[in-house]
Amino acid sequence: MWAFYVCMFLLFVFGVYIGFLLGSELGKRAVTTADYWKMNGAAVIVAVLLSFILAGVPLLYGAIIGLLAGCIAGLKMSFGESVGPWKKLDSYFNVNRSHREASASGKGEERRRRRKAGEAGPDLISVAPDRSKKNDNAKNAR
Q1: Inter-axis angle of helices 85-93 and 97-105, to 10 degrees?
Q2: Of the candidates 91, 74, 83, the residue with the CA atom closest to the CA atom of residue 108
């Protein structure tokens, strides 16, 4: 009996890991919040279908639930913005500050579109030397 629970727990942990990897890859493809919620819905539907298909193997229930939990967490982390109930949880626990700022500023969708298209992000600082000042000293001109 205990061996069954230990194996189920191990499969659950393995499912969370694999689900997180899958969710992270899928979350990079989501641009709008509608895409994000569609992917969450698809993850739930896949988990339900897997539970129907594998109904005769209760040992794998832990893996299915782990896949769903990991996929939802991976989607949230790679989406890069706090939406829905995540917004309240992130502010309550004071985590994912960049996700909360992206949600508040409304620039998350623009960033995700650039990332999906493979474009570079905007320059945040200028590293070009200032040519307006003249250096009279020959030593400083080098």
Answers
A1: 130
A2: 83
- 118, 121, 123, 125: CA torsion to nearest 10: -130
pLDDT tens digit sequence for 90-105? 888 888 888 788 777 7
Token pair for 42 = 């698809």
Tens-digit pLDDT profile for residues 44-65: 999 999 999 999 999 999 999 9
Q: Which ranges of 1-142 does DSSP label H, i.e. alpha helix?
A: 2-27, 33-53, 61-79, 85-93, 97-105, 108-117, 138-141
> Distances in Å between the alpha carbon of 47 and those of 41, 51, 57, 131?
10, 6, 14, 61
Name 59's Cβ contacts closer than 8 Å, sequence gap at least 6: 4, 7, 8, 11
Neighbours of 55 (CB within 10 A): 10
- What values do phi and psi take at 140, rounded to 5? -80, -20
Rg from Cα positions in the chain: 23
Using DSSP's 3-state secondary structure scheme, residue 92 falls into helix
